[in-house]
Amino acid sequence: MAQKIDADAGRFRQIVRGKIKSQLKGYISNGEMIGKKGRDLVSIPVPQITLPQFRYGHKQTGGTGQGEGDVGQSMGGDGSEKGKAGQGAGQHMIEVDVTLDELAEMLGEELELPKIEPKGKKNITQQVDKYTGISTTGPQSLRHFKRTYKQALRRQVMSGTYEPTDPRVIPVKEDTRYRTWNTENLPEANAAIIYAMDVSGSMGDEQKELVRITAFWLDTWLKSQYKDVERAYIIHDSTAREVDEHTFYHTREGGGTKISSAFKAMNAVIDERFPPSEWNIYCFHFSDGDNWEEDNDICSTLLEEEMLPKINQFCYGQVTSYWGSGQFLQELKADFSDEDKVVSCEINDRDEVLGALKTFLGKGR
Q1: Is-contact 183 127, C-beta < 8 A?
Q2: Does the pLDDT at position 250 exceed 80?
Q3: CATH no. for 189-361
């Protein structure tokens, strides 16, 4: 009975997965589910799944159009009575818990993302025991029922004691097979994600929400590719500083903009905490493209000479705002058009988040 329930639950899980995958683009552009994220699970509303149930009819109630009454007679009263609040339950969306690994897998399938190949030769390794072998000796807790049965059947067939009309298979001690393990060294590659965002007056709440949605899916994918992921957050206008995650998304300041201050801060974080020989480093910078004109050359120099030799990839996402000029994106494309490590794109609204994820993650660096 338990096996049947497990099988039914598995089939239902596949249906839920199919529903989520078919509407993944809508979930990606919706920030509501981010607020329902637990440590390892996300609650996702799935409105189009109805659970089967039996409905019993009443006997001797007649068919359609039968019963007492004249043609044209109202069935709902004369309209003079006031309506009353209903007592029955309405239809509700159900929420299903989906693991972050499952979300990452669906994202990878939807965007056809390549698996990331960690760089460097100093990745930490761990020893893992995998039950991949079969032995004739072992504890009863590791007895392999299927292999034991097959061995007993083979013995009886070869000895001529197997009777097809009475197909009983009785294992003896020599037939028993047990699972055995082999120790493997698996890499524990580490990743560092450094987010930087312009928080000057031209970056409003909608722009920050685009950054928050994009960062959630970037985190989800990169965490599925690495054993350990560390994150750092930097905000800037004309100056930059490292902050916690909550401050990153809820700070707004005035003043001018110097993007080079963010590049210097990201570079300092790398030098202080993330040696490139031991970490796979990803830098994501978000801005509306406004920058002090004389600062553009400084940014290019910092990126080319200081940051790119240390990191896997630098990604720039330009979120459109009413006040932003958007010029920095053009400067970046002109200076690094032939550099594979530099990836940039525009994110004008929530519908473009999916394309931004494809651009940022599509190279598998």
Answers
A1: yes
A2: yes
A3: 3.40.50.410
